[in-house]
Amino acid sequence: MSESLTLASDANIAKNATLPLPTVAQRFNSGMDLEDPKNNSFWLWKWIFNWTSSSPIMLRTVEKKILSYLKLPYRGFFVDIGPAVGEADKIWTISMNTESKEVPLVLLHGLGAGIALWVMNLDSFAKGRPVYAMDILGFGRSSRPLFAKDALVCEKQFVKSVEEWRREMNINDMILLGHSMGGFIASSYALSHPERVKHLVLADPWGFPEKPTDPNNTKQIPLWVRAIARVLTPLNPLWALRAAGPFGQWVVQKTRPDIMRKFQTTIEEDINLLPQYIHQCNAQHPSGESAFHTMMQSFGWAKHPMINRIKDVRSDIPITFIYGSRSWIDSSSGEKIKSQRGSNMVDIKIVTGAGHHVYADKPDVFNRYVNETCDMYKVQDGKLITPLQLIRESTESDEEREPSLSTAKGVEIQPEIEPVSTSEDVAATTATSDDDLATNVKSK
């Protein structure tokens, strides 16, 4: 019985065409815009690769189909960051509106995600500034090296990969936005490279609070549930998806129908693209996922919580938290950090009715909050003019405010003297372009 999969369209593939699954040989000889997993033809790895029904080709194709719903043009390419963690690491990147001289916005996704999940946000962000979204090292289409087994070392490896990416892209400074695990990495990056971060935007960030020590919190959980959790603790969080093999997409559809609903209004023609994309992102070698497992202390907490360190972020770097009101992430960490940093800017926004995937649950509200933050930084005559930073006296909900940006007490941030560079000249020599993406513009 032959297997088939509905793949994405491009200039040479009819829309919604059904194509046969690529052979193993095709998966490793698929063009310059694909990261070679370098399996050295080991038969067991080939068998596993076939069992999971995953390949760089299929991931590339389904990603392109999702991004075809963008209205603005984008460019996709690999950025060669050298031996950041592995021998020769590459980070898959898309860029938009790079001609703009405004401070660029850089996006870091969460666990098990990839670039395409920003599809409802990218157009809005890129209208007024350069935007870069990357597949974090170990995820999506980026390289999947072997990370360290020490939590802090592993965290620093993620930070190093982001910094090497920035150098290759010749980005002088940026507004850094991270969701969930990406927020944890973004925070660690701001601690290590404060001179490169103009503003830190943390969307429902993972890894901030300390794990509760109250034994009453665990006594309410049935014994059999705790026993299963203990047995599964050594396993990577998404192991079941890979264990399901070719049924991985079905597992995503059945266990997370909410993910499909979030994107239904945007990807209305084929909502199954989302579980297909998530399956392809996570059915391959779980390099980044294993690194997350190394950094975590049970799924909900980090071994080295950011709450104990974020107060040391340089005092002139504002932080904006965007929480979903229905998220499992505890927003009280934001309040604690606001009190820790004293008069330094910490802005907390609560998106009513949104869960952990706040960027997808209420994309219009989320996009407005991010754009208002980015609009505080403007470039005139090649120089960054930083206006008065806004501090609100209390946590703000999207239901408690008017669309216009309110004013309150301010803390003046000193403007930078040197011009902001968002040039892709370096990237053009170090990154391999996915040439058929450059003019990929489609109106809904």
From TrEMBL:
Gene3D superfamilies in the record: alpha/beta hydrolase
GO cellular component: lipid droplet; mitochondrion
Species name: Drosophila guanche (Fruit fly)
GO term, biological process aspect, one: cell differentiation
Family: Belongs to the peptidase S33 family. ABHD4/ABHD5 subfamily.
Protein name as annotated: 1-acylglycerol-3-phosphate O-acyltransferase ABHD5
Pfam families: Abhydrolase_1
Keyword Hydrolase: yes
Major subcellular location class: cytoplasm
Keyword Cytoplasm attributed: yes
Catalytic activity: 1-hexadecanoyl-sn-glycero-3-phosphate + (9Z)-octadecenoyl-CoA = 1-hexadecanoyl-2-(9Z-octadecenoyl)-sn-glycero-3-phosphate + CoA; eicosanoyl-CoA + 1-(9Z-octadecenoyl)-sn-glycero-3-phosphate = 1-(9Z)-octadecenoyl-2-eicosanoyl-sn-glycero-3-phosphate + CoA; 1-(9Z-octadecenoyl)-sn-glycero-3-phosphate + (9Z)-octadecenoyl-CoA = 1,2-di-(9Z-octadecenoyl)-sn-glycero-3-phosphate + CoA; a 1-acyl-sn-glycero-3-phosphate + an acyl-CoA = a 1,2-diacyl-sn-glycero-3-phosphate + CoA
